[in-house]
Amino acid sequence: MMRFDPFREIEELTQRMDRAFGGAVNGQAARLAPPIDVHEDEQGLELALDLPGVRPEDIQIEAENNTLSVQAQRKYNRTEGRTAHRVERAYGTFARTFSVPSKYDLSKVEADFDHGTLTLKVPRSEAAQKRTVQVRTSTGGQLSVPKTVDAEQAQGQQTQAQQA
């Protein structure tokens, strides 16, 4: 009679699920999608990916044709003479690909890696920057500086015009 080992049962179930749903098969690493936060402000996009246990030198970032790709790898270190009863942390290749609108400049992407979090900053392109356009008037062929009118002053002028 064989003794019941719940850890063995869980490991066998995990291996069967991996084979059925495209996980690690025949020693090949599984491709995992790390969680991400995406924020946008006036300066551009900020993407933050969780890559715990990944070394900075094991991260590849590619930006091309409005596509930003991040790939990283975390290897599982097997030690001789040691039995793993439970392995729940994700190992293998982490990969995410993002379509980035053309209003962002992928040639100026900045990447920072701190405590397992990869932060990518994608600035807006020069053409997509918000601009203030001044309206000028022409007086006798010469352009004058736009006039700024105080709101209270303008209201007083309207009241005087209505009384007249």
UniProtKB/TrEMBL annotation:
It holds the Pfam family HSP20. InterPro entries: A-crystallin/Hsp20_dom, HSP20-like_chaperone, Small_HSP. Residues 151-164 have a biased composition (Low complexity). Keywords: Stress response. It comes from the Bacteria. Residues 27-138 form the SHSP domain. The keyword Coiled coil does not apply. The keyword Kinase does not apply. Residues 131-142 have a biased composition (Polar residues). Residues 126-164 are annotated as: Disordered. Belongs to the small heat shock protein (HSP20) family. This is Heat shock protein Hsp20.
